[in-house]
Amino acid sequence: MMIRLDFTGRAKAAARALRVAASAAPGVTFAAEAGPHLPFRDASVDELFVGRAIAWRSDIAATLDELWRIGKPGALVHLTLPHASSVIAQSRDPRPRPRLTLNTFNYYDPRLKPADAPPTAFAVERARLRVAGERGADTGLALARGPFAQFVEKLANGSRGSQYRFERWFASLIGGVEEFDVVLAVIKHVERRHPASVLAAQDDAAAAGPTTLRVTSDIAHEAAVVEADAGDPLPNSPTREAAGEPFVSRPDGGV
What predicted TM-score, i.e. pTM, was given to this entire model? Predict the structure, then answer.
């Protein structure tokens, strides 16, 4: 049996995910903070629908470490995050926070991460740049969400290489992209590669396209998509702990 956690409240029914929220409420299975101190055992979860629940936290790195800790090898983590190229996205909340791009997650790639980095490791399974993020009313967003934006997103998301080039060279020409979706796969028990192999690994990572990335979820990926939300409130501290022994990981395990 697969264990899936939903921090958004909007994962589709086909995902069969357990709801996790800041406080107890009808339909909530666990009251816990989407942050660095989750009340779950190591390597006990198969999939996490996090969405925007950690988008405005100042401790995103520590939270990613925690999501990695509770994830089984190959577990999927679904995130939607503000993109560093957009002044609109970065200025939406006055509190300081990390500036993030898809390139940020190279830090967690075992082929590229520094030797003194923590053991947290992910592979990017799927990613999408979005010209306009979630803002509630669509008034005044015809250009940001119309045919022009769709054309730009199609060009930008053609492959991982095109996403990298768009982030580096072209995002500033349209005022930046406001958000990006990324699906991470948990990697555990991976030996560090010799530094001499890092340069070749960087070329391989930049050239990889979405069709070359293996998705380990046992359900159709469209069924796992988190429905659009208006943003998640900042959570409180956890009040419950998961009970029982963790389920056994699926046979294909690692990435």
Answer: 0.73
